[in-house]
Recover the amino acids of this structure.
């Protein structure tokens, strides 16, 4: 048996309870990872509240959490690229057996080797948010050197990785955030910082190639105004208005992450070379209290960088 933090019904953060769960058994294409750290993402509390039950119809109890960093302890019969003792990280499949647990089973094709110079905590922050940023900028928007890119909420989980990926690709990067985050966000390489409390981004910039929408609503609608014809608008919060996209001659789409170990390995290389760092604004213990506080903070939408849970 192993310790896990689970929910046994939908509801508020008080549904997070510690429970003894059966140790996972690997399928032939899976490994078992002894978890050292995980991180919090909005999907965690959205699923906990029941907002995603139409899409993800899981039986209870549900172990939340879909970021993993740890050490391989067992390997399925068909696994070829990983061995016991390997340091790894991953964005596992979205199943009811997530990563708020001492051990978890992960498909080989979703795993990446973790560079020796990167801590488990820093690694656990990356998979879901980092891969989302990469999918939006690289796969959807086909970012190129010299592109002008606006990243909304650059101080958030996805935003701060997006800034670094865009800079590594040679883009000019603007971001919106609050004044208190200005200094550390600029340290990631931002060219134009927009304090959203003092400036309306749609009035101070224009003719951009890409806008990464992490907020939705009015912000998404105004984002069409700052794009040039042929610009790209990936959103991670809601499907963009197709009529507006047509009017502005912009490619717009809603991106739901498709995890990939191969793409995560490309982020691992950036991490190893110092081109991608995790800003961990908050770290909590692997307890009921720790997870409840972490969910509370994530739900404010004002956490700095990433929220990490240290398991071992």
């Amino acid at each position: 048996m192993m310790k896990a933090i689970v929910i046994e019904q939908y509801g508020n953060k008080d549904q997070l309870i510690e429970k003894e769960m059966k140790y996972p058994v690997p399928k032939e294409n899976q490994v078992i990872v002894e978890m050292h750290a995980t991180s919090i993402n909005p999907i965690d509390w959205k699923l906990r509240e029941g907002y995603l039950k139409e899409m993800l119809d899981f039986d209870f109890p549900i172990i939340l959490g879909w970021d993993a960093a740890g050490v391989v302890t067992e390997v399925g019969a068909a696994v070829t690229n990983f061995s016991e003792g390997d340091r790894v990280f991953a964005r596992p499949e979205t199943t009811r057996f997530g990563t708020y647990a001492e051990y978890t089973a992960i498909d080989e094709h979703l795993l990446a080797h973790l560079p020796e110079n990167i801590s488990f905590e820093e690694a656990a922050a990356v998979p879901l948010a980092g891969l989302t940023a990469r999918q939006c900028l690289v796969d959807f928007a086909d970012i190129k050197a010299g592109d002008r890119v606006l990243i909304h909420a650059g101080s958030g989980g996805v935003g701060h990785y997006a800034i670094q990926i865009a800079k590594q690709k040679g883009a000019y990067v603007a971001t919106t955030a609050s004044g208190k985050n200005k200094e550390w966000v600029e340290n990631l390489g931002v060219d134009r910082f927009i304090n959203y409390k003092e400036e309306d981004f749609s009035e101070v910039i224009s003719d951009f190639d890409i806008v990464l929408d992490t907020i939705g609503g009015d912000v998404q609608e105004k984002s069409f105004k700052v794009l040039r014809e042929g610009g790209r608008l990936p959103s991670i919060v809601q499907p963009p208005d197709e009529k507006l996209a047509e009017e502005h001659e912009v490619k717009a789409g809603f991106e739901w992450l498709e995890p990939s170990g191969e793409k995560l390995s490309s982020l691992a290389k950036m991490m190893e070379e110092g081109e991608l760092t995790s800003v961990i604004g908050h770290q909590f213990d692997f307890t009921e209290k720790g997870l409840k506080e972490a969910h509370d903070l994530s739900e404010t939408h004002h956490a700095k960088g990433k929220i990490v849970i240290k398991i071992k």
Q: What stands out?
A: The radius of gyration is 19 Å. The first helix runs from residue 42 to 49.
